[in-house]
Amino acid sequence: MMFSLLRHQPRPLIVLFMNNFHEQALTVPVSLTRFEVGKRYKHGWIGDSQLFTTYTVISRTKHFIQLAESEPGRTFKVKTFNYEGSERCYPRGKYSLCPILSAEKEAK
């Protein structure tokens, strides 16, 4: 009898708050800095603070961008992800201490 009374109680307020928080975490931010075709972006290396590599965005789709590296001239396609209001990608692959290319760091 006690079990049936507990089962029909309303949901606690904290559970309702957590559901709303989860929905907000899954939505795309209103202002998202994206990679733009034709623009150049750079990233630094962890091992050398004065070394930078520059990439040019050749084309893009919703989740992928095609990059051209400035030095050797090779082109490749990478998947983008959103983090803290900007698009980012792993141009050299994902590994420990790998460089991350961010749409916020546009080369001049």
Blueprint (SSEs and pairs):
Blueprint: H1 2-7, H2 13-26, E1 40-44, E2 52-60, E3 64-69, E4 75-83, E5 86-89, E6 101-102
Antiparallel strand pairs: 1-2, 2-3, 3-4, 4-5, 5-6
Distance between the termini: 72 Å
Shape: globular
Query: What is the number of helices?
Result: 2
The mean pLDDT is 82
Order of helices and strands: HHEEEEEE
Q: How much helical structure, as a percent, in the residues?
A: 10-25%
- Structural class, from secondary structure content? alpha+beta
Number of DSSP-assigned strands: 6
Unreliable stretches covering 5 or more consecutive residues: none
Largest sheet at a glance? Answer: 6 strands, antiparallel
Q: Report the radius of gyration as a whole number of Å.
A: 21 Å
**Biggest sheet, spatial arrangement of strands:** 1-2-3-4-5-6
Beta-strand content: 25-35%
